[in-house]
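Usage

Read records sequentially. Each one opens with the input sequence:
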Amino acid sequence: MKDIILAGFAASGKGTQSTLLLDHFGEKMKYFETWGILRSLQSTNNAIGNHLKDLTANGILVKDEIVSGLWWVFMQTLEEGDMILGDGCFRRIGQTQQIIAQLEASGRKFIVVELVIPEKEIRVRLANRKLCKACWAAFNTQVHGDLERCPYCWGELYRRNDDLDETSIQKRISEFKENTLPTLDRLKEKGYLLQIDGTQPIEKVFEEILEIMGA
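and closes with the structure output:
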């Protein structure tokens, strides 16, 4: 069975599908979610946490070497038989090349699945998105209702400020087009990328992901 790395714009459904996959495979699936890991590190009062907080506060992207370095540490935790679930790992060419090299060197079989949604749908989903402060699960108020607590861990749900600010949204869309889409095109050329229509029902997307994984 193949490891899977989910790609796509924010609110494309990566978080929802990750939750379903983790529930389906249980402890044998190990999860690397870039934003959640960086957020956890920023919550600590030490040199690394403070450095990452400074980058975020000044709108500076985390260096590719940091993301790929965290991925290397993550791979050291794997035991025989473990599967990998990645989310938000391939946003720029540099970090993508470094992570792919690690996967290839370890001999792992993997596939990258992009959840594709149109720009208009992106804005609708962001406007209705809530995230859990504890486990980072994502919810859509149109699908799940206007929840206040996470049904998985009972953590508090919140809305990201940049999900509601049009200037921030447009900047993120532009960055995705400039940096991430060329990265995904490169993965497609190498035969690592498959695309799924992310506007389909959640259950249908999940079925297609399992089929791609060979589950």
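Summary fields computed downstream for this record:
- The mean pLDDT is 92.
- The two ends are 6 Å apart (CA to CA).
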